[in-house]
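in:
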């Protein structure tokens, strides 16, 4: 099997191809990573492993070892990865392997980077570093029927149940995309309880939210033409904690329990 390595040498200013069986520049000892960047996905609260290849231009009859350095520009928490301090290219080959293990420790929803460089103790040339982009994979499966218990306060003088205590209602959450959802009634019946008799608000108003690795957020406009802002979190135990507030200052916090 032939491996093509693109080696960029600033000092020598040329590019050449390296074949596993043939060495085109026998007097040049050069080591480089398989690419400039790679991406690894770590499942939410899970682990992942990833192998990075290191190639050399020369095939020697004895093994060679290169140190692996972690660039200070890396954003990944050291607790989120483990890797050896060096990589060995075995004798009679031009390929070594770095095995890296990742775990979902302090990986942000926007992802992290791990930047590696090589160092040689025998004055061999080494290529530029490799940036490993660590992506947090957060599968979302929140669709279903939920019983909801709400507690909240209204800034309006009409509601009888104000503050609202342990108000029970039932909603349906429907998945609309990989991480987006609608709620059959975004305020889980609270408006109906507060404003049906006073203002004829006796109907449900659909809400929505996006699930970003367990963090919920959404906005919609209700029947009084005010924007409702939703925030919340998936508790990963079959329940959601959701808080909403409208432009008038009405607010409630609810626990959604999947039925």
């Amino acid at each position: 099997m032939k491996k093509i390595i693109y080696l960029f040498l600033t000092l020598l200013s040329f590019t050449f191809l390296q074949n596993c069986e043939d060495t085109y520049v026998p007097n040049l000892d050069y080591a480089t990573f398989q690419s400039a960047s790679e991406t690894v996905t770590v499942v939410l609260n899970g682990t992942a492993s990833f192998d990075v290849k290191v190639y050399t231009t020369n095939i020697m009859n004895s093994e060679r070892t290169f140190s692996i350095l972690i660039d200070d520009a890396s954003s990944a928490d050291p607790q989120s990865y483990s890797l050896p301090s060096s990589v060995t290219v075995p004798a009679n080959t031009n390929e070594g392997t770095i095995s890296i293990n990742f775990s979902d420790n302090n990986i942000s929803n926007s992802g992290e980077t791990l930047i590696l460089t090589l160092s040689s103790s025998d004055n061999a040339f080494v290529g530029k570093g490799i940036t490993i982009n660590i992506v947090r994979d957060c599968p979302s499966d929140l669709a279903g029927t939920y019983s909801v218990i709400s507690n909240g306060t209204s800034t309006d003088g009409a509601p009888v149940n104000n503050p609202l205590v342990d108000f029970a209602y039932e909603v349906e959450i429907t998945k609309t995309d990989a991480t987006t959802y609608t709620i059959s009634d975004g305020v889980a019946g609270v408006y109906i309880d507060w404003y049906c008799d006073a203002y004829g608000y006796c109907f449900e108003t659909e809400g929505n939210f996006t699930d970003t690795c367990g963090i919920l957020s959404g906005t919609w406009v209700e029947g009084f033409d005010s924007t409702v802002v939703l925030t919340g979190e998936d508790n990963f135990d079959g329940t959601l904690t959701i808080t909403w507030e409208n432009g008038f200052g009405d607010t409630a916090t609810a626990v959604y329990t999947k039925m």
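note: The chain has two domains: 30-137, 144-258.
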